[in-house]
Design brief:
By secondary structure, the chain is of the alpha/beta class. It is built from eleven helices and eight strands. The chain binds 2-phosphoglycolic acid.
Length: 252
C-alpha cells in the first residue's frame, strides 16, 4: 500500500503568491509513485489551487469542515463546498482545534460521520497531552483509545473505508515547542490503534504519525511497515524540505 504524506499548512502562508508557489513546488516533485501526497492549505487558497491540483499527483485536502451540510452557520465551510473544489481529504479533530477552539469529541464525531457518509477521506487526529504521557505509555494508550471511542462513535453507520488515523502526541507538535516522539514509542501507539480499530470496525485502517516530522526523522517513523505515512506541519512550509521528505518516503 502507498504511504500517505499530508502537508498541513495551518494558518500559513499569508500571501496568495506564496501559496501558489508552495503548491507548484509540491506539484513539481518528480517521480511520485509510491506515495500519496496531499496538501492542506487554508480555505481561501483551495479555490485558487483547485485548478492546479486537477490532473496532478498532489491532491488537495482541507484542514477542517463543518458538521452540517448547509444553513445559518456563520463562518463555517461545508463539505459540499470542499468537494466542489476537488478536495479529497479532510483533517478532522486536529489538536490545535480541540485546544484553541475547544472543539469537543462530540463535534469531531459529527464531522467524521458526515465526511465518511459523503466519501470524503478523513484524517482523524488523536493524541495525548504531555501530562498524560508523563504518566507512561499505558496512560497515553488509554487516552487515545478513549478518544477513538468517542470520535468514532458514529462511524459504524457509515463505514470506515475512507478513514485514516493520525497519531499526533500533542506535546510533539512543533507549534507547542515540542520535539518528535521516539519512533519506538510512537509505533507502539500506532499498533494499538490498528488493533483496536480492526476489531471495532472490521477494517485494517491506515495510521500515520505526526509531530515535528522533518527530513531528518521521517525515515525513522515511516520505515515501519505499520506506519502508513506522516502528517507534516511546519516542515511542509519549506518547498525544499517538503521535497526532501517526499523523496525519502518514496524510497522506503
Ligand atoms: P508539526 O505539525 O509537523 O509542525 O509538528 C504537525 C501537525 O500539527 O499536524
Amino acid at each position: 500500500m502507498k504511504k500517505l504524506l499530508i502537508a498541513n499548512w495551518k494558518l500559513n502562508p499569508a500571501k496568495v503568491k506564496d501559496a501558489t508557489a508552495l503548491f507548484a513546488a509540491a506539484k513539481g516533485i518528480k517521480n511520485i509513485k509510491e506515495t500519496e501526497v496531499v496538501v492542506c492549505p487554508p480555505y481561501p487558497f483551495l479555490s485558487l489551487l483547485a485548478k492546479d491540483a486537477k490532473g496532478s499527483k498532489v491532491m488537495l485536502g482541507a484542514q477542517n469542515m463543518f458538521w452540517e451540510e448547509e444553513g445559518a452557520y456563520t463562518g463555517e465551510v461545508s463539505i459540499g463546498m470542499l468537494q466542489d473544489f476537488g478536495v479529497r481529504y479532510v483533517i478532522i479533530g486536529h489538536s490545535e482545534r480541540r485546544r484553541v477552539l475547544l472543539e469537543s469529541d462530540e463535534m469531531v464525531a459529527k464531522k467524521v460521520e458526515l465526511a465518511l457518509k459523503h466519501k470524503l477521506r478523513v484524517v482523524l487526529c488523536v493524541g495525548e497531552p504531555e501530562i498524560v504521557r508523563k504518566k507512561g505509555m499505558r496512560a497515553a494508550i488509554e487516552f487515545v483509545k478513549k478518544q477513538l471511542a468517542l470520535d468514532l462513535a458514529k462511524v459504524e453507520k457509515v463505514g470506515a473505508d475512507d478513514l485514516v488515523i493520525a497519531y499526533e502526541p500533542i506535546w510533539a507538535i512543533s507549534g507547542t515547542g515540542g520535539m518528535a516522539d521516539s519512533p519506538s514509542e510512537a509505533i507502539e501507539v500506532v499498533s494499538v490503534i490498528k488493533d483496536v480499530l480492526s476489531v471495532k470496525l472490521k477494517v485494517r485502517l491506515r495510521v500515520i504519525y505526526g509531530g515535528s516530522v522533518t527530513s531528518k526523522n521521517v525515515h525513522s517513523f515511516v520505515h515501519y511497515d505499520g506506519v502508513d505515512g506522516a502528517l507534516v506541519g511546519g516542515a511542509s512550509l519549506s518547498a525544499k524540505e517538503f521535497k526532501k521528505i517526499v523523496e525519502i518516503v518514496e524510497k522506503i
